[in-house]
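User: Small ask, check this?
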Amino acid sequence: MTNRTCNIAGCESTKIIARGWCNAHYKRWHRHGDPLADINRRAPDGATIEERLKYVGWIEIQVRPGMTPCWEWNGLRDKAGYGRLWDGTRVEAAHRASFAAWGTGENAGHFIQHGCDNPPCMNPDHLTRGTVQTNTAEMVAKKRSANGERKPQTKLTDLQVAAIRDAYTGERGQQARLAEEHGVAPSYISMLVHGLNRAEPTHEEGRRDAHRVGVGS
């Protein structure tokens, strides 16, 4: 029996993961939407940060109306979508390297926040320096924090929470019955019906209507 090889022309790997592709090409497709994406491009030794950023390059994508296009990093990204760059001595976040190279200055000890809320973006016009407190405050203000159904420990959907509140009349023993019905503690039902928990619906994760407008190099 002949071993199957990756469907990508020229690839002889027999470790097929999915879609007929080997692990390397499947990961490129999963992260970048293209199994041929060049995620391992590295600038020559001794290159400056600016040269390293330009060597790997970026794709310009219009993400937020009223803002200049995002520069989406064309290299390796982490699980959260942030670009990763080898700066000559260690792996650095691409947006932090961009801010240091073309932004308003030193980024050491600071959070670098995205005004566009687009993790792979490294456009210095979209980046500002912040702190843990300002970063958290911005996340809450823009409703990007995990709440409701988006919290991994959440047992009830928004519809179930609404149904519990609609059904609750204040009758003696009702909280215990609702708790048993939904598999949660009576104290949790009490917090729900009194608005002390799940006070607002689950925040929708940021959706974007992006389109390609150009290629950086």
Summary: The mean pLDDT is 77.
